Amino acid sequence: xxxxxxxxxxxxxxxxxRMAQWARDYVRLPGIPDEYIGEDGAPRAVWTRFFDAFAxxxxxxxxxxxxxxxxxxxxxxxxxxxxxxxxxxxWPLSHLPLIIDDADWQQLTAGIxxxxxxxxxxxxxLYGEGRLVAEGAIPAAAIAGSTEYLRAVSGVKPPGxxxxxxxxxxxxxxxxxxxxxxxxxxxxxxxAGYALENRLVLxxxxxxxxxxxxxxxxxxxxxxxxxxxxxxADRDEPRIGLLTPGNFNETYFEHATLAxxxxxxxxxxxxxxxxxxRVYIRTVAGLKRLDVLLxxxxxxxxxxxxxxxxxxxxxxxxxxVLRKDGxxxxxxPGSGVxxxxxxxxxxxxxxxxxxxxxxxxxxxxxxWCGQKAAREEVLSRLDEVAIEGAYGRGxxxxxxxxxxxxxxxxxxxxxxxKAAINERGIxxxxxxxxxxxxxxxxxxxxxxxxxxxLRVFAAATPDGWTIMPGGFCRIAEQPDARAVSMGDGVRSAxxxxxxxxxxxxxxxxxAVDTVRIRRIAGVLPxxxxxxxxxxxxxxxxxxxxxxxxxxxxxxxxxxGKGPSTALPSVERIQRMLVAWGAVSQTTRTNPARxxxxxxxxxxxxxxxxxxxxxxxxxxxxxxxxxxxDAWQVITEMAERLAFEVDDDDGVLxxxxxxxxxxxxxxxxxxxxxxxxxxxxxxxxxxxxERAINTARFARQFAYDEASDEDLDILLTLADCQIxxxxxxxxxxxxxxxxxxxxxxxYNPRSVAFQVSALNxxxxxxxxxxxxxxxxxxxxxxxxxxxxLTTAEATSLEVKTLFxxxxxxxxxxxxxxxxxxxxxxxxxxxxxxxxxx
Length: 836
Hints:
Elements: H1 2-22, H2 45-54, H3 59-76, E1 79-80, E2 89-90, E3 98-101, H4 102-126, H5 131-134, H6 140-144, E4 166-173, E5 179-185, H7 192-205, H8 207-212, H9 219-232, E6 240-243, H10 252-262, E7 265-267, E8 272-275, E9 278-283, E10 286-290, E11 292-295, H11 318-323, E12 328-330, H12 347-354, E13 366-368, H13 372-380, E14 385-389, H14 411-423, E15 428-432, E16 438-443, E17 446-461, E18 464-467, E19 472-476, E20 490-493, E21 495-498, H15 526-557, H16 567-579, H17 591-600, H18 608-620, H19 628-642, H20 648-672, H21 677-701, H22 708-717, H23 721-727, H24 734-743, H25 751-764, H26 776-790, H27 798-819
Parallel strand pairs: 3-21, 6-7, 6-11, 11-12
Antiparallel strand pairs: 1-2, 4-5, 4-17, 8-9, 9-10, 13-15, 14-15, 16-17, 17-18, 17-19, 19-20
Helix pairs in contact: 3-7, 4-12, 7-10, 15-17, 15-18, 15-20, 15-21, 17-20, 18-19, 19-20, 21-22, 21-25, 21-27, 25-26, 26-27
């Protein structure tokens, strides 16, 4: 027995030694609460439990799992932007979670639920009876001073019965170790989608550890939120949209993540139209009624007719539809007024007045300078408080979005601040100086304390408020941070609420017997169809350019393989690439130079790099519709082409690898996409562009006096060398090559094959007219197919090929103008009646 105990002790020692090494320099900051080290100076039990299990992993295994998490973020394209960014950044995920035990969490959730209910009642009064202002519980100036108080919705009862469907509070531990509220989020709380992504990444990287810790699942929260939105509509199977400002928004990835996870339609303002007392989605089948709108657009931008007239993000007439109870908007426009710091000081008394209770969770002591006594208090303690704007980010008259500390100002700036507060105190608040509590982060093989802010989410349900067991945690890099936002030097962390008991493994999937079977995924917004169409076209254009690059580069690698690219043929390829905007007219007739520029010149819109980047931008607007594998393929193509190569072999290798990835994407689309309208528009774009490019290839290299060299290049570009040689025992001849590349309906690379596929797809797209006549895109496609079916290879002159190319361009434009109308007047009146 003694020997067995010794062996067990020996096995435990490596883990204990590693833990001691990790925490060797971990020092709790003076006077600052810490999640790892408790008030007694010892590690908290929940963290000891975590690190005991974590230390059982070898250092190599830990690094492998960290790398796996980082790789998933890159491959899945989990991104964000900071204001002013022109490019996405990879999501900065901390490798350690923030861990909270169940007992501590229950105290926090009780305070959040109470606060959410209080704010719902305050909103109901502010936009309803107005008794709180009339009776002096809230100064009128504290409300009127906020640009988020919308007179346009005053007196409008919220469709669905409530103002707040989703509420969030930023919290941290106060000096006494209790959770304190740092700010309320009632406008359109962000972060829930990133919290979900954090959970997916970390639970996958540390699956056994995640299970052994009994981490509470977040799926029930999202299910409750979705079910409440569904129940708020006035029909059994409502259509729910998530309104996003678009893919240039800082948190667009989150919008796409939530839409995909919850099964909502991701829509922009241009996707929606008002008719009568309803809001409709512009789809490829006409207008379809929208019942619920989860908005991620700020209130003032929602309706240019009644709110900010300069907005291009909203829906003209939306406020009038709200008055007519025609759509549920979550959260109700105007709810952002409660984010004003000016109201914080009044919430304790409002809680006693409306709920008959004291606030269960305190918030930062705040003095609104619109009241004389509070203003004098702030000015007398100016060096002891932080000055903030009363209604928005930043302090009026001072640069930046953060607080102003009078102790750090010059004497002249200090006097200017005091004068501004005296002159217009309603714009300023003084807040208690608070340093954020800290949590462990992993740095260079050790743990170290860093300040954090935790955003906790509450969703309204018929039975009250349900709290997400976890949240959105932001961690600062500097130990003395006073605020945390997703800018430079900030990372995010998953939040684990752990239990001593086994937790339910609930998912967002409902019981089978509660779901009505359906085989169509739902409506396809015109914007999404447009993007799918152009995604297909951009990828095909990139493939055509890459095939030209390969035709130039193959002989340079192996002179005995492929065409010799004699000077006249090189000139023809160069002319094509110049016409396509892939190379400059001034580039010398040198195959290596032409190939390199056509592959990687970012300043030429027709280069392979520019076209793949255009496809990537388009795919960004389709994040909720593309599989992770498809997105990964597009991302890898863009990264490969952006990596500069400076030798002929490198250019050819990059072109060939990218062509293989394009084939992979085509395979994913062919095998994994549901055969609904979205897939058809992607295919229509690909087939139309391939037909156009193949016709151009034929016109350039199958002209009447074409040489063997030219015809051989055409067969290479059209990927028909093997087929031609298997059919004909002679060298390349004009008529057989023309027939194979242009007219052969059995050749998947021919023009005829593409036109046949276009006819099939167009015939299966929804008709937009109700007069029974064939519509223009189908009429053009049928005429093209008839011409190609009856044509003979010997009659295909250059003039005929040019006319064919022009007809194909007209067909592509006709598809776009027919199915993808743009602008405020783009609705289709003939489809407004009788739509579900």
